[in-house]
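Input.
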Amino acid sequence: MTIRFAAAAAGLLTAVAGVCQAQEAAPAASLNVELNALAPTQKGCIMTFVALNQLPAAINKVSFELAFFNDKNAVDRITVLDFRDLPRGKKRVRQFDMPNAKCESVTRILINDTPVCDGPAAGECMKGLVTRSQISVPFEG
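Output.
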């Protein structure tokens, strides 16, 4: 009986380990937005973002409300940027020219909201949001 119990226990542990590995391998549903670059222009500052939609559905249209902080940690401006469509599983680069903005004065950017998120279930764009920055300016969601 002890041998049967040991064999059953070993089988159960193997099954549980297999389920755990499968759960770890499955990527979490997310909407990844990366601040990739800030580049000064004669008019202001060009901001480059890279987005990857890993949500269960394609995004037909999405916009982000961003707050830009200055060197005094005060909100310098709030604006809405239209990222257009983000197909599921594909990276997209989006650039925005911010007139009258100085790249060197931007010390932090915060995604405050997603006023438009057409495609996924309500609230999924903000819920699945994952931000990161490739530059020294922090980018938060």
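The beta strands are 31-40, 44-53, 59-69, 75-86, 91-99, 108-118, 129-133, 139-140.
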